[in-house]
Amino acid sequence: MIGGGAEFVANVFAGTTQREPAVLSIDPGIVAERGSTEMNGSGAIEMLAREMTAELHAIRARVIQEATAAGSTQRLPLKAKGISFGFVSSKPTGELQLHEIEGIDRDLVVRPWLQKGTVTSLRTFTVTAMNHHHGMQPVERFGMHLTGTRDFDHDGVTDELTEGDITALVVWQASLNVPGRVIPREPQQRSAVSHGEQLFNQVGCSSCHVPRLVLQRPVYSEPGPYNLEGTLNRREVTVPFEFDLTKDGPLPRLERQSDGSAIVRAFTDLKRHKICDREKQHFCNENLVQGFARTDQFITRRLWGVGNTDPYGHRADLTTIREAILNHGGEARGSRIGFEELSTSEQESVVAFLKSLQIVPEGSAQTVQEAVEVTLPYQPRERDRAALGVETKPIGRIQ
Ligand code: HEC
């Protein structure tokens, strides 16, 4: 599936090029191994991050204003769309104090990309990846204005990718269909899915994997306002390219609510967490620093396509959803223990629920599909049938 996730064999070893000379080693001590994640619904994710950043920046401005007006240090909770990023304080001089911020960089920009949550925009990622993986250098990062040459890599080709080329690549990613749900036909499996959804909330998975966030203005706009130098920024263009995430692009799309907003059911808080500890070390394997994030922190993985985007974890080295859950430690320790304490059938219900969250075929009119039986060359076990019913037909919208 174009834009979907990739298998383990397509893993990337980031950081090899940061060494001089570049290394070929895949030792986790010196490189960061990454599975390739699916990009479906990424326009919505980026716009959520931008709205959250705007909220956090407004709080930052307010705390400075209140502290200077009051003549004393002021402290405010940093909350965006209900997600807490700690506290921000300001001295009466307007000097900011950021020692209590959580899961975000000091510039209070919510960075939704890279599994670390350290890349600002699809555009920043794309510009980097075109150079890094494809050997093509975008003008906005390698052009005359920054490097003094139109052929920075001396390959005889000038201005390899224009700003327009990058915009086209980004807008395609941003417009990819949003994931949906595939509900099994068997009544027993069906009730397991809905029971599993309740249990997912009950044991606290939803404290990080937030089931729904409201996007106030579901219009994607390119380029974004928080891009750093080397990536085209909103202020450098007269008119941004805009499209409505609820009206344009392949189906299924975000659904517009009567007040003009849209609900994004991505199961993430777009915040970085440490989900490893001494007992559960799987997610603590790294030494290489990426961006300004601690090596043991990762952004809460969006789960809206988890049912058909195995394998799991930032290294794509976990084969099953259950393994991914059982390796949660650190900040997720309580909810993992909650999961372990459920009965076997309750645990299976949580997994059945997660399996129902899938990237549904592009062009589907509805986000909820019913699994349709397919003819198989062998008799599948009862409990595998729903997962194997790969053909689907639309049955409605997510409530
Ligand atoms: C403290 C925040 C937090 C809590 C609570 C939490 N998770 Fe996670 N979860 C994460 C982070 C962060 C990742 C990404 C790990 C990585 O990148 O390797 C993740 C990854 C996952 C994955 C792997 C998804 C993929 O595509 O690779 C699954 C499945 C998952 N979580 C399910 C759960 C379930 C079920 C619960 C409740 C028992 C839960 N999580 C509780 C933060 C959390």
Description:
By secondary structure, this protein is α+β, with helices and mostly antiparallel strands. It has a domain at 180-396: Cytochrome Bc1 Complex, Chain D, domain 2 (Orthogonal Bundle), CATH 1.10.760. It has ten helices and 15 strands. It has helices at residues 42-70, 122-134, 139-142, 144-147, 163-174, 187-202, 321-326, 333-340, 344-356, 382-388, and strands at 12-14, 32-34, 74-80, 83-90, 96-97, 180-183, 213-215, 219-222, 241-244, 262-264, 272-274, 297-299, 357-358, 368-372, 391-396. A hairpin with a 2-residue loop joins strand 3 (74-80) and strand 4 (83-90). The longest helix has 29 residues, at 42-70. It starts with 11 loop residues before the first strand and ends with a strand. Bound molecules: heme C (HEC). Heme C binds next to helix 7, helix 8 and helix 9.
Strand order of the largest sheet: 13-6-14-15
Report how far the terminal alpha carbons are from each other.
27 Å
Determine the CATH topology of the domain at 180-396: Cytochrome Bc1 Complex, Chain D, domain 2
Largest sheet report:
4 strands, mixed
Based on CA inertia axes, which overall geometry fits?
A: globular
Secondary structure class reads alpha+beta
Number of strands: 15
Mean pLDDT: 91
Report the sheet-strand fraction: 15-25%
Architecture (CATH level 2) name of the domain at 180-396 = Orthogonal Bundle
The CATH class of the domain at 180-396 is identified as: Mainly Alpha
Using the CA coordinates, give the radius of gyration.
Answer: 22 Å
Low-confidence segments:
none
Helix tally? 10
Q: What fraction, in percent, of the residue positions are helical?
A: 25-40%
Q: Which ligands occur here?
A: heme C
